[in-house]
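Pimeloyl-ACP methyl ester carboxylesterase
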Amino acid sequence: MYTQLSPHRAQRVDLPGRHGTIAALRAAASGRDLGATVLLLPGFTGSKEDFAPLVDPIADAGFEVVAVDLPGQYESAGSRLEGDYLPERLGADLVDVVGKLAAEGRRVLLVGHSYGGMVARGAVLAGAPTAGVTLMSTGPEALPPGDRRDALDLGETVLRAQGIEESQRLNEVRQAMNPRWASLPEELRDFYRTRFLRSSTAGLLGMGTGLRSEPDLVAKLSRKLRTSCVPCLVVCGEHDDAWSPASQRDMAERLDADFAVLPGVGHSPGTEAPDALLATLLPTWRAWLRP
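Tokens:
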């Protein structure tokens, strides 16, 4: 079973950020270093640990790995202003991080999962010097109507009125109705609880607003990628319940990007099916790095 607690060789480090330190997991490339760094950005309520099953295989393939908590998530410092957590703002915050990695002589491959994909898009549009972009389980615009959108709306109401602890308590009540939740190890459930409670309230509210209001910037991103000669990959699970695979395929076509659907996988390929995900990611990234 792959989870956020899967073992890996990465070291816990802090990177400089505009609002304080950005918490990260960093692993050097093993064997032949391809001279590229894969910068992994998590989704809403997520963290760097969401990429734990991917760290060692990516490093073993010759890539340096840096997985971060976005500003305001879990162990990263963040702003007190909700507006600073919109994808455009967070993307701009990450330009310096990408720039510092590039200044070390690394070609930076940006990978964003879900909301992290929107942030990756914001970073590219803000001028981050990237050598490739992977959008994973990320849609072209705001989250469409559905169960996830309903849960987001309810969560904001509780968070604003009663605070983060009550929001977490109600979330666990909702999760308790899911048989899969009951089967998770207590250690993992404790991690989810701790991660949520340590996240910034302003960050949760601001990212929630972003998920409900982000405009369709695909055409703008397409122009930026084309003029910068930056390749792009869109990948998602067959059963993604956030943005439909059809909408992500359409986004890929508009971006002139590679597109892959992982059979039998939902919204979180990194923990649901890391082997299948890596079978798509690694060959694509190697192709991008060829002269």
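Residues 87-103 form the longest helix (17 residues).
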